[in-house]
Amino acid sequence: MKSQYNSKRIVKNTFFLYTRMLLLLFVSLLTARVMLDALGAEDYGLNNVIAGVVTLFSFLNSTLTTATSRYLTYEIGTGNITKLKNTFSNSVLTHSIIGFIVIILGETLGLYFVNAILNIPDNRLFACNIAFQIVIISTFFTLVQTPFSAIIISYERMGLYAYMGCFDAIAKLISCYIVKISPYDKLITLSILQGLISLTVFIIYLIYCKTRCKEAFSISLRFNKSIATPMLKFTTWSLLGSIANMLKNQGINILINLFFGPTTNAANAIAYRINAAITGFTANFTTALNPQIIKTYAAKEFIEMKKVLFRGGKFSFYLLMLLGFPAIFETPFILRIWLGDNIPAYTSIMTKLIIVLSMIETFTYSIGCAIQATGNIRNYQFLISGISLLNFPISYLFYKNGFPPYTALGISIIISFITLISRLYFMKIQLSIPPSEYIRNVFCKTFLVAIVCLPTPLVIYNIMQEGGLRFIILCLLTTFTNLICIWFLGMQKDERLFIKKIFYNIKSKKHIKI
Question: Which domain holds residue 83?
Answer without folding.
Answer: 2-507
